[in-house]
Structure formats: structure tokens, C-alpha cells
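Input record (Table S2, row 341):
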Amino acid sequence: MKALAKTKAEIGLWMEHRPVPEIGPDDVLIRIRKTGICGTDIHIWNWDDWAARTVPLGLVTGHEFAGEIVELGRNVTGLAIGQRCSGEGHLISNQSRQSRAGKFHLDPATRGIGVNEQGAFAQYLSLPAFNVVPLPDEIDDDIGAILDPLGNAVHTALSFDLVGEDVLITGAGPIGIMAAAVARHVGARHVVITDVNQDRLDLAAQVADVVPVNVLTQDLREVEARLKMKQGFDVGMEMSGNQAALDQMIENLVMGGRIAMLGIPPGKSPVDWSRIVFKAITLKGVYGREIFETWYKMIAMLENGLDIRKVITHRFPVDQFRDGFEVMRAGSSGKVVLDWG
Ligand code: NAD
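Output record (nicotinamide-adenine-dinucleotide complex):
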């Protein structure tokens, strides 16, 4: 089969011929139809310090996918050959206290496909049946291929009650934009999204009914005044990983405000803790998706009018994967989807 692998310790990924994976008794074999390129894949492509520390050479990369089940392990029940599916890319153990309490997304032994284990940038993927998420007919393969990052957005957005609240999202990358759409869908009052990249703010305004703010040229306080907000935002979602964005969020939150943090800062970064204490701010770190509550909620919302389709800005046949990675690396696209045919 074709597979996109990290075979050399340098910039790039390489298309290889690999054997179709053999599945164990509790696994399924998925024929991949579409995959999404994630920021993590760009780190692996660039072979930055994190990637060099984390990813074993030779690994088949990729973790955002939609496909079709073509083989079932002998113990697998409740799934069928021909079933369209996506799946949770975090593989968990059943040993930890968290897993045994059903909090699978908090399992410290989590391993990621396409990061630690063989990934989805291939014609076939072996996945534990436990991780498979069947796709209803209403969710096509393009959307199925980006449920993983949509799940990050949903997990973050549903961290706090948003009904009637004023929400600030810092970072209009694909996940911030999708989180904005989710916040509108569940009933937030104003949703303001910031970035320093005008292309991305323009895309955010196409995907969701939001107020885009370019913090290089606009004053967030003036925007708040225009929206008749008196004390600041009730809820913040940090989706940039940028220190200045987090500082700005803390400054613009109400007393008792809540922040859900998905963005990953590049290293240790200073935080003005006294501001957090005196403003009585609640800060929640968000990792991955809740397994499987996030999946349940996001599919239900997609079936009930949540529309994030325009966040997919580019589609390429997989043989043009280099073009897809170049578009992503340029930093102004939304989601880029590769078609495996
Ligand atoms: P992205 O890199 O595509 O988008 C980040 C955006 O933040 C960019 O558009 C950038 O221009 C913007 N930005 C930079 N400085 C800013 C500032 N001062 N104010 C406002 N915006 C600013 O990322 P993405 O793929 O949308 O993911 C969002 C974040 O979530 C990233 O940090 C990513 O690493 C992280 N992430 C975390 C998890 C998790 O499980 N915690 C999972 C996936 C992604």
C-alpha cells in the first residue's frame, strides 16, 4: 500500500510502499478515503525539536482520517465490513485509575497514531475496534476526516457554559475558527476571535457569525465598547499558543471569568499569576477529545445544523501531498484534506 512516512531526519515526508497492516483479534482494518493535515503533521514534516524527540524514524504519519471498514478482528462485534467511519487517534490502556474510571482521555499511557504508533496517512490503517467511530450518512468523508480537530474545538468550547455568554477566542487557526462556530451554535451572545493574520480572520468570518479582530491593527477594548460589553468577556478559549494572546485574554476577562486553554506554548512562558488570582479566573487545560463524549456531541451537533464545511479551504489528491503541506506551512489556509482515492 501507499504510505506517507518519516524516513529521514530532515524536512519532509516520503511516499513509500508498505505492507497492508495485519490486524489483531480486537482490531479493524480501515481503508482510508480522506485525511486531514494537522499542525502536528507540520511539526513532523519540519522535524523540529519536539518531532525529533518524539517521533520514531520510519513511522507512517497522520491521525485525521475517514474511511471504510474492510476487515474485522475475530473478537470484534457491533461493527460491520463496509461501515464508513472515523476514529479516535489516541490509543489508551485499560490499566490506569483514570481509564478504569471511564475517563479515557485522561489516561497517562495514551499513545497517538501517526505520532507514536503507525498512522493514517496510508491506504490502510489498523485500529482497535474500541477507537472506531461510525459515521452517519449525513457526515461525508471530508468532514469525517477533520473530526479529530473539530473534536479539539468541541471539547474546548463545551468546557464551560456558553449560553448567553460573551466569548473571546485567541487564534483563528482551523481549531479556533471551528470553536467559534461551536460557540455560536450552542448559544453564546458575542463571539470575538483574534489573530494577527488577516487571511485567517477573513476565513473565520466566512465560517461563523463572529467578530474578527486583528490585534495588530485593532484595539480589543474598542471592540468591547462597540458590542456594549461592560466588564469584559465571560469565557476565553486560548487557541494560539501565543504568550501575548494569553496575556490579552487575561486582561480582557471579567472578574470570575473562565479560560479553556488548548493552544500549546512553544516552551515555558511567564504568566502574571497575580492577575489570575485577583480576577478569580478559572483556568482549564484541554487535551484531545473526551472519549467518547466529545465524539457523541460533535456528531449530534453536525446532524443538527453545525456547519464548519468552509473551514476546509484546500483539497488535493494524495499524490500531490507536497502541495498540501506547502499550503499548510504557508500559514494562511484552513484545513487541507488529502484524497486517497
Ligand atoms: P494554528 O497554528 O493553525 O493557529 C494558531 C493561530 O494563532 C494562527 O492563525 C496565528 O496567527 C494565531 N496567533 C499568533 N499570535 C497571535 C496573537 N498574539 N493573538 C491571536 N492570535 C495569534 O493552530 P491550530 O491547528 O488551529 O491549533 C490551535 C492550537 O491548539 C495550537 O497551539 C495547537 O498546537 C494546539 N492544539 C492543541 C491540542 C491539544 O490537545 N491541547 C490539539 C490540537 C492542537
